[in-house]
Amino acid sequence: MHDLIEDMGRQIDQQESPKELGKRRRLLLPKDIIHVLKHNTGTNRIEIISLDLSISEKEETLEWNANAFKRMKNLKILIIRNGKFSKGPNYFPESLSVLEWHGYPSNCLSSNFLPNKLVFCKLTDGNFASFGFHGSLKAKGCRKLMSFPPLNLPTLESLKLSYCSNLKKFPEILGKMGNVREEWRWVKSEKCEDNIGSMVSSKVDWFLTLSCNFDDHFFSSGFMQLAQVRNLFLWKNNFKFLPECIKEFHNLHTLDVSHCKHLQEIRGIPPKLEHFKAINCISLSSSSSSMLLNKQLHEARKTAFWFPGTSIPEWFDHQSSGPSCSFWFRNKFPAKVLSLLIAPVGDELHFIKPMVFIDGKVLESKFFCSKDIERMFELDHTFLFDLQGLPVYGNLFELPLEKEWKHVEVTYEGVIKTSIIKATGIHVFKEENSIMEDIRFDDPYNNKKVDKDLNGSQSQNHSLLQSIGLFTTYNFFLGIFLFVFLLLFFYFIY
Q: Per the UniProt record, which residue ranges are transmembrane (predicted)?
């Protein structure tokens, strides 16, 4: 019965375009498929190709045009279960949802293939060992992709499978892949840590997991094999602590454990860590938050830290309960200025950057959010960062040297609702050779004005006293003159 239905389907396809094979919607007969692939007569009408050669035919090498799929803009299903092709394809259409090719004839996929609609991919029995010159496998954003072929790619440099939210498991690793420089994962599996050891090498730059349900056992099942990564993302996992051994991650530049709601304790900080996020880690202990506010940590590096907390460290120079903090400098802009914000801002926090004013003139940030932030967390979060890392128009640290005092204001007013801001703070790093007389947290011009006013008042008082003195002396002599005049007047009259 099944064979009868297939025969009926083939007859319908043949009747659809009996002479022009490339205009049929489905190609199922081996001779028709070989003709179209050899002579490059395909069109955008073809949606399905399914090739299954006989035992005798599959031993013959099939000569074909490697650009044959380029005209098939609407090809959705490509199945080649056997066949010895002379070369691999130069092109795959983006419309493909099913790609199955037994004995794939090339060691690379075409570099222009964007598998956005791919649901199923199976490439077996072939020398699938490298990805050409580009050294990259990208299936980013393929939300329909549920499975991926086994990988044996020693020259692979970049593997990106992020946002493949329906991928049931990470691809099977058949050999060492020591050249991988990037690895992005988006896996929802309770056992995906089993593949970490096969994948990671000393050259891996990025390692990302999301919703993998990692618990504390993750740190004893190959975690140290990640010790050379520069960027480590462990979002939405279930572990309760970051182990002390993370201090041995000497190359780690970025660590993100956001939305790990069970995370309570951070037992170590990598020596070169600059960017750290623990957004919405609602169980984080106060002692861990205090450790993240270590003065030496932030003065030694160009840091940007986000984590739950409401404390401004005592070593900060100036703090305010409002949206702004400011200071005055002269001669040279300070080498390091730390800014701090406390607010219950959500995931948008890393897009929020303050505006910086110098003597009332704004240096606009390239990335700041002027719209109202709708999503907020229950907990207040601390955002502590080095002002030198702020992407502003103009370089704060190349301002011309001037002896006059300049006023610097760092403000979130107009960036986020001021009503949600709990506190802001400023800290200026004191270099060994710097002169702190060139940094002030009160208005030096107001003090000068007071001094001037005091001096003016003293001068006025002195003048007044002089006037009073002159007036008193004048009255004294006038009195004597009148007295003598009256004596003489009465003497001559009487």
A: 474-493
In this prediction, residue 131 carries a pLDDT of 40
Query: 400-448, pLDDT tens digit by residue?
Result: 667 889 999 999 888 888 888 999 999 998 776 566 688 999 988 886 5
Distance CA 64, CA 86 (A): 7
Query: CB atoms < 10 A from the CB of 323, how many?
Result: 22
Listing DSSP states for 271-323 in one string gives: TT--EEE-TT-TT--HHHHHHTT-HHHHHHS--EEEEE--PPPTT-SEEESSS
Instruction: Calculate the alpha carbon distances from 87 to 32, 107, 113, 144 in Å.
Output: 19, 10, 17, 29
* Beta strand pairing call for 275-277 and 254-256: parallel
With beta carbons less than 8 A apart as the criterion, state whether 108 and 132 touch. yes
Which residues, listed in sequence order, are joined to residue 407 by a DSSP beta bridge?
328
Please state, in angstroms and rounded to a whole number, the distance separating the CA atoms of residues 65 and 90.
Answer: 9
List all residues 6 or more positions away from 420 whose beta carbon is below 8 Å from its beta carbon: 343, 344, 345, 373, 376
Residues 277 and 350 sit within 8 Å (Cβ to Cβ): yes
pLDDT tens digits along 60-105: 889 999 999 999 999 999 999 888 888 889 999 989 988 888 888 8
